[in-house]
Amino acid sequence: MTRVGFIGLGSQGGPMARRIAQERHDLTIWARRPASTAPFADTAASVAPTPADLGAASDVVGVCVVADADVEDVLLRPDGVLAGMSPGGVVAIHSTVHPDTCRRLADRAAERGVALVDAPVSGGGQAAAQRRLLVMVGGAEKDVVRCRPVFDAFADPVIHLGPLGSGQLAKLLNNFVFTAQIAMALDTFSLSDALGMDRAAMADVLAHGSGGSRAAAILAASGFDTTGLRQAAPLLRKDVGIMLDLVRANGVPRPAALTELTETALKALGRRP
C-alpha cells in the first residue's frame, strides 16, 4: 500500500485521515497539538515529531489546513514536509487556497524532485467518513494517478479538472455559488413565513422540487439555525474574495447576480441572530 502522510486533522481532515488508515495504507500524521493526534490512538497511524519526518516517511502527503499561510508553513518551514520528502513523492493540497499559491509551492517542490497537485474537497467530514467526498483535482495526469488510491479511501467522485490550479478554481466557484444560495435560502424561508406558510413543509417541497438547493437543505436540516453557517462565514468570505480577485486578474466580466447574492449572504451571516 502507499505510504501516506497527512497534516490537518480538523473536522474535515480528521475523517479523511481516518479513512486512509482504515484502508490499511501506511499512515503517518503530524499536528501542532497532541490533542489533534490523540483520536488516532486506536489506529495503526504513526505520529511524526516534525513535518519533515512525516515527509520522509511518505510517498504521498495530504495537507488539509486552513489558509494559504498554513499550507506554506507546513511545507516550507526549516523542518517542513519538503525538507524531508524524497524525490518522486507527491503533495496533495486539500485546503482551499489561491491557485497561485499552489503554483508557487509546486515550483519549490519541483526543486526537490517532488510533484504537487491541488485537490480541494467538498462535502464535509461526514461525507469523508462515508467515502463520498467530492475531490476536485488539478495537476499532471501521472501525479493524479499516483494519488488516486489515497483519494479513493475517502472520496467518490474524484474529478480531474486539468492542470495545476484547476481544482482550486472549481472549488472556489463552487463556494461562490453556494454562498449565493445562502442568500436565496434565507429569503425563501423569510418569504414563506411572511405568507403564513409552514417553513418545514416548504423545505420538504424544495427538497423534492426544482427550486431546492444545497444551502436550503442545510438550513432546513439544522432546524433553521444559522449558527453553523455563521461559523463558516469567515471561510466563505475568504473564498469569495479569492474568486473575485481571480475574476479581476483574468479580466472577465464580474458576475453581477452572483456577486450581489454573495454580498447579501455574507452581510446577513455577519449580523447577530
TrEMBL record:
Taxonomy, superkingdom: Bacteria
Alphabetized UniProt keyword annotations: NAD, Oxidoreductase
GO MF terms held by the record: oxidoreductase activity
Domain 6-phosphogluconate dehydrogenase NADP-binding: start-end pairs: 3-162
Domain 3-hydroxyisobutyrate dehydrogenase-like NAD-binding: 165-267
Main enzyme class: oxidoreductase
Pfam families xrefs: NAD_binding_11, NAD_binding_2
Enzyme Commission number: 1.1.-.-
PANTHER family the record matches: 3-HYDROXYISOBUTYRATE DEHYDROGENASE-LIKE 1, MITOCHONDRIAL-RELATED
Protein family per UniProt: Belongs to the HIBADH-related family.
Protein name listed in UniProt: NAD(P)-dependent oxidoreductase
Source organism of this protein record: Actinomadura fibrosa
